[in-house]
Amino acid sequence: MPVGTAATVKGISTPQLEQTGARMVLANTFHLHLQPGEAVVAEAGGLHRFMGWDGPLLTDSGGFQVFSLDAINRIDDDGVVFRSPRDGSRIDLTPERSMAIQRALGADVAMAFDQCPPYPASEAAVAEACRRTHHWLERCVASHGGGGGSSHQALFGIVQGGCFPHLRAESARVVAAMDLPGIAVGGVSVGEPVEEMHRVVRQLGPLLPEGRPHYLMGVGSLREMAIAVANGFDLFDCVLPTRLGRHGTALVAGERWHLRNARFRHDHSPLDPSCRCLACRRHSRSYLHHLFRSEELLGRTLLSLHNLTTLLRFTTAMAEAIGQGCFAEDFAPWEPGSPAAHTW
């Protein structure tokens, strides 16, 4: 899922986003509450009409901002009090308030309000965050009207537990017992070593309920997605493709190419001949190098489109390989630069 935090994937128009192959987009409850406000979005007919996106939409709960904006918030069992990063005003975000905002936004999938502990954190601190997350989940379900909801909006619960296997196992048990339409794993890609992320993914895969979407939050690198899919995960989101694109970095066969580098100045070949994005169909590496050296905004858009297309080609290829019964052969050995990296 491309990340459209403020009802836009940065630098990308909705028609361009459709051309990447994106089928579902993520937006953020906290930031849309700040600007323009959920009332404005509701007046427009909901988030789909507001941003002109016809596909499914998922809204984060604001729980990640409990982690990322910890310097301007205060947490207790009732919820979180923020100081607005815009004007310093007080913002009270509770499970009930998060559900109300997400209902007003009208996303197809709403995420439960949770507490994502930082890395590193003590076992006691992570245990407390798990307890609070589970308590808040009960309140989210009650406020939402059950997991399926009364407004055709699905509610997903979130497993926490940091890097402590017993806390992860207990959180998976508690969240799975709520019998919600989908289940997510949070608290990864928050600064822990990548080996720890892989361990969490391998531990939790068998513990999550079958027949429901499994969502690994905040992960979008090719190798990590391949490992997660091998362990039963279906949904991902990450700001990585557009963030890299805005800074001049392209994803090509799993490698990161920095287009500002002088080696691309006289390279008039396509960025990636196997890719059908606008950047690869119409422009050369030399031209992209020129755009970034000249600080032209078009370069940011073109590389963001390419990186999104690359990730979506990769996930589509994994889905097709599963359907054809060859996922293990094509993707289990996947590493950047390996022969398997070029099969899609």
Topology:
Elements: H1 14-19, E1 25-28, H2 29-34, H3 38-43, H4 47-51, E2 57-60, H5 63-68, E3 73-75, E4 80-83, E5 90-93, H6 95-105, E6 109-111, H7 123-144, E7 154-159, H8 165-177, E8 182-185, H9 194-204, E9 214-216, H10 222-230, E10 235-236, H11 240-246, E11 249-252, E12 255-258, H12 278-282, H13 285-293, H14 297-324, H15 327-331
Parallel strand pairs: 1-2, 2-6, 6-7, 7-8, 8-9, 9-10
Antiparallel strand pairs: 3-4, 4-5, 11-12
Helix pairs in contact: 6-7, 7-8, 10-14, 11-14, 13-14
Care to describe what's here?
It contains 15 helices and 12 strands. Helices cover 43% and strands 13% of the residues. β4 and β5 (90-93) form a beta hairpin. It is globular, with a radius of gyration of 20 Å. With 344 residues, it is of the alpha/beta class. The longest helix is centred in the C-terminal third of the chain and has 28 residues, at 297-324. α6 crosses α7, α7 (123-144) packs parallel to α8 (165-177) and α11 (240-246) runs antiparallel to α14. The chain has helices spanning 14-19, 29-34, 38-43, 47-51, 63-68, 95-105, 123-144, 165-177, 194-204, 222-230, 240-246, 278-282, 285-293, 297-324, 327-331; strands at 25-28, 57-60, 73-75, 80-83, 90-93, 109-111, 154-159, 182-185, 214-216, 235-236, 249-252, 255-258. The strands form 3 sheets. Strands 1-2-6-7-8-9-10 form a 7-stranded parallel sheet.
Q: What key attributes describe this structure?
A:
single chain, 344 residues, alpha/beta, TIM Barrel, 2 domains, 3-stranded antiparallel beta sheet, 15 helices
Task: Give a short summary of the structure.
With 344 residues, the chain is of the alpha/beta class.
